[in-house]
Each structure stands twice: as structure tokens, then as C-alpha cells.
What we know:
By secondary structure, this protein is α/β, with parallel strands linked by helices. It is built from 8 helices and 9 strands.
Amino acid sequence: MQLSTVKAIVTGGASGLGRATAxxxxxxxxxxxxxxxxxxxxxxxxxELGEGAAFVPADVTAGDAVAGAIERAGAHLGGVNVLxxxxxxxxxxxxxSRSGPAKLDEFxxxxxxNLIGTFNCIRLAAAAMAQNAPGADxxxxxxxxxxxxxxxxxQIGQAAYSASKGGIVGMTLPIARDLADLGIRVMTIAPGxxxxxxxxxLPEPIRASLAKQVPFPQRLGRADEYAALAVHxxxxxxxxxxxxxxxxxxxxxxx
Length: 255
């Protein structure tokens, strides 16, 4: 798919990886609808990105809200042919700690946002893409999900986060198979340690320590590097049903 023809919805697009992806798509001539929470910076980000961007507020876990946001996005963009799922949360808790067993509602919340929220957006966006006229190779759409190296190398306290991201990895192939007849590709990116707003809240010594764990390049990943891979996936029609680690060769240690 040529970037100039892209009509993308980017969840979590008001910051971090999502914002960088939206900016790169627009720089390539595409159009983007930023799907993020009402309280996010979505309005300001869409304004900064220019006429090619719009903000469609919704919680990714809410079926009706996401359906409405996708409908509004399609009306603004003239259709939807790309979905990039970047919305997500992370919490840390040991399965059993001095205060007792982990809180089940906190575990469930991470799964609800990261895994179920991702699937919710996939199912609704794919239904919209199925109405597109097929392009080259019969392609009607592209879906890019965001997992994490924690899906493979989960650390102490990451049971919920790792489970949610492992679920995204695990459903990539079956969903790609589900949607193959419709001409919709499905890919997943598993980033390593990236310099996002969430990581920006950590003290600098901790950030520096995390950067040293990356074999090469020995630094934190940059949001635009994620965006560059997302755009390549959109453009390369042979990429389908795979998870790509984007991590500088890091293999996370237990802690």
C-alpha cells in the first residue's frame, strides 16, 4: 500500500509511539485519525499535525464508543484502510508479595486495555476495511499491533503486562488467517525499551541503566524508529502474520 493512499486510525495516537506513527504517515502524504481518550492531548496533537489529522475520542475497551469513532474517522478520512494499535497501559505487581496475593482487578484491567482493547479495535476496523475496493494484490487493509519484548522475556512483576502482550502475539497469526480472504494483513511489532512518556517519568539514573542493557545500539529506542517500521509494514505487502522484535538485541533479565 502506498503511503499517500493511507487512511489510518492510530490508537493511543496522542503520545509516544502512536503520535510518532501518525506524524510519519502524514509526512508521507497519508491521513490519520487519532483514537485516544477524551482527556488525552488528542485535540492539540491533531491540530499540530495539520489538515491530514483528526481526533476521534474513545476508550479502546468500549465496543460502541470505538464503533462510533471508526465511523467518524471513516467519514473524515474518506474511508479506513490502516489500523495501528498503540494504546496500552502497564502496571507492576508480584504474584504474591508482602501485602499478599496480587489484586485480581488490576490484572484484569491490564488484560482489558492491552489485549481485549486491541482485539476490539481490530474487529471493528477490519469490518470497515472489508468494504474497501481491493487494491494491488487484492489488498483492502493493514493492521499493525503493538506487543512488547515482555511477551517473551517478562520480568518479575510483569505477569499481567506480559500476559496481555503475549496474547497479542498469539492472536496475530489466527487473525491474519481469518482476514486473509478479505485482503487484510495483520502484523505485530514487539518493541524493547523505548523512550516514551511512560518511561520519561523515571529518574535519569534508571533510564541510563535501562539503556545500558541494550546490546546495540546501547540506548533507548526512539518513537520514530517504531514509526519507521510501522510504515514499512504498511508499504510491504508480503509482510503478514508475523511479530517483529524491535529491541536492539535486548533479552530482558528477571529484574
